[in-house]
Design a protein that fits this description.
With about 290 residues, the chain is α/β, with parallel strands linked by helices. It has one domain (about 5-285): Spore Coat Polysaccharide Biosynthesis Protein SpsA, Chain A (Alpha-Beta Complex), CATH 3.90.550.10. The chain has helices at about 35-45, 60-65, 70-80, 85-90, 110-115, 115-120, 140-150, 210-215, 230-240, 255-270, 275-285; strands spanning about 5-10, 30, 35, 50-55, 95-100, 125-130, 130-135, 155-160, 170-175, 180-190, 200-210, 240-245, 250-255. Helix 3 runs antiparallel to helix 4. It is globular. It binds 1-O-phosphono-alpha-D-glucopyranose.
């Protein structure tokens, strides 16, 4: 089994980032000098992914423009001798083979992923959710791919979250294989307190076998009346092996204002161009 394709769902209104997301796709909101989706595509590329499908919706054409060539801008930068910027802008268009498809009706994450069927065929593929920005030594998607390829099955990225937060996520019943790797036995999306299976939650990264589609196609609307990927995963893990990896690295939820600020500060601190300045600035703040 080889994982060479990735799917990035980027439809959705971005209600937690309104009013900015009214006119700017939330995936294009700038985090430490790059739009959020830049970090997601880079993680996929750094994980060995060659082809990427981004699932968009109305009002998201800025994402396509960002990953396209920009001949007028590039010739202006060339004329003014701004070679570093020119190279950077040009390289973004060459990061990966990126295809776009539009989800015309927003019926949930599972419904979005179904749009990838003609792109992935029966091949296994990674899914990276745009809100979840990772900082890790080994890209989180790569960590999942290594396990999915080794065990030849699906593998989802998890962490233990606070009991007070688990109802915002999917909750998993798992059995340990090692201290970081688990067999998944059951999943539930956004459980009420009496339905929580454990505090292990999927945090925005998946490697899935092509078998997921038959469960997505038969999925009934779940939490929020939407077709939930988690419900299809629950059906899939009854049929074939599924792993959960407690990945190494930090995850920031850039889809809400506090997570976005956390990601901005942490990624700026990791950027040698601005980290010293930022540290000095923060030291000088009187709070
Ligand atoms: C989605 C998934 C959920 C997952 C979460 C964090 O929820 O449906 O299972 O735990 O992302 O990655 P959302 O944040 O879109 O409500």
């Amino acid at each position: 089994m080889k994982v060479k394709k990735a799917v990035i769902p980027a439809a959705g209104f971005g209600t937690r980032m309104l009013p900015a997301a009214k006119a700017v796709p939330k995936e294009m909101i700038c985090i430490a000098g790059r739009p959020a989706i830049h970090y997601i595509v880079k993680e996929a590329v750094d994980s060995g992914i060659e082809d990427i499908l981004i699932i968009t919706s109305r009002g998201k054409t800025a994402i396509e423009d960002y990953f396209d060539y920009s001949p007028e801008l590039e010739s202006r930068l060339e004329m003014s001798g701004k070679t570093d910027l020119l190279n950077e802008v040009h390289e973004i268009a060459e990061m990966a083979n990126i295809t776009f498809i539009r989800q015309k009706e927003l019926k949930g994450l599972g419904h979005a992923v179904m749009h990838a069927k003609s792109f992935t065929g029966d091949e296994p593929f990674a899914v990276l959710l745009g809100d979840d920005i990772m900082r890790s030594d080994v890209p989180v998607t790569k960590q999942l791919i290594e396990n999915a390829e080794k065990y030849e099955c699906s593998c989802v990225g998890v962490k233990c979250v606070d009991s007070s937060d688990i109802s915002k996520y999917s909750s998993l019943a798992v059995e340990p294989i090692t201290d970081k790797l688990f067999d998944v036995k059951k999943l539930i999306e956004k459980p009420t307190p009496d339905k929580v299976l454990s505090n292990y939650a999927i945090l925005g990264r998946y490697v899935l076998t092509g078998d997921i589609y038959s469960f997505l196609e038969n999925a009934e609307p779940g939490f929020g009346g939407e077709i939930q990927l988690t419900d299809a995963l629950n059906a899939l893990c009854n049929k074939e092996r599924m792993l959960a990896l407690e990945f190494e690295g930090e995850r920031f939820d850039s889809g809400n204002i506090c997570g976005y600020m956390e990601a901005s500060i942490q990624l700026a601190l990791a950027n040698p161009e601005v980290s010293e300045w930022l540290k000095n600035y923060m030291k000088g703040l009187t709070l």
